[in-house]
Amino acid sequence: MYPRIIHTKQIKKGEEIAFKLQKDFEISSYAVHTIRPEKTRLSIDQVRDMIRYITHAGSTKHMFMLYNFDQSGSEVQNAMLKLLEEETESHLFILFVSNIESVLPTIRSRSQYMMIEEEFVHHSTQPIQKTNNYRFTHSQVTLLNDITLATVTTKDEAIALLHEQLEYFRLRMKQGQPHATATVRAIISAIHYIQSNNFNPQLSLDRVLIEHVVL
Question: What's the CA gap between 11 and 181, in Å, rounded?
């Protein structure tokens, strides 16, 4: 399971996404753990306690929700990076952040990035196109309530989803929407690379979303 970085200042909305992921991955309620800063930020002892727990967790799937992770020091983040390198098969890690730039690039590269954009949460009046688990508002991905980033496991799934988005952004391009042309080019490029190479389809899809759709 890919770790998730949920970028938001609205923790309740972030938690809704986290609990939907829990349901999607069929993780039992008793196996959900919340790790909040004891003072102002997470401590290395909290991370070590989590690692010790995981060591004895057996084959049961667990979900760990770490709050204010972006405020953690380098020791905590490096320990978390080492854990993510070893323990992502059976467990889901949710990192709540309000400043993505404060998270180690190596952690970001190993995680799915999910952003809740404040300006769209309560008062979005702009046209929306919803396709599968994606919600597009003027070339932006908005994750609200039960809407989360889709997970693909095969080339065919990734290509099918990209073709759906290609149709949408081609229409936006004809309407003269800013950034739509760059997004169309990025999607076509991603389709080509997924078809022609052994690129990880999920990472290719995430890259298009993060670099060209979330603006």
Answer: 34
Model confidence pLDDT, tens digit, residues 111-123: 888 887 654 433 3
**Per-residue pLDDT, 123:** 31
Alpha helices (H) in the chain, listed in sequence order: 11-24, 44-55, 74-86, 105-109, 118-121, 155-174, 180-196, 201-208
The amino acid sitting at 24 is D
The answer to whether the beta carbons of residues 149 and 112 sit under 8 Å apart is: yes
- The tokens for 187 are 């999607």
182 is written with which tokens?
Answer: 């760059």
Smallest CA-to-CA distance from 62 within 104, 97, 111, 21 is with 21
Q: Which of 215, 26, 206, 211 is nearest to 134 (CA)?
A: 206
DSSP code at position 44: H
pLDDT digits (tens, 9 = 90+) for 155-186: 777 777 777 777 777 887 888 877 778 878 88
> What is the separation of C-alpha 132 from the centre of its chain, rounded to a whole number of angstroms?
16
Q: What is the spatial distance between Cα 16 and Cα 146, in angstroms, rounded to a whole number?
A: 7
Query: Which domains does the chain carry?
Result: 1-116 (3.40.50.300), 119-215 (no CATH)
Interstrand relation of 112-115 and 4-7 (parallel, antiparallel or unpaired): parallel
73: left (phi over 0), alpha (psi -120 to 50) or beta: beta
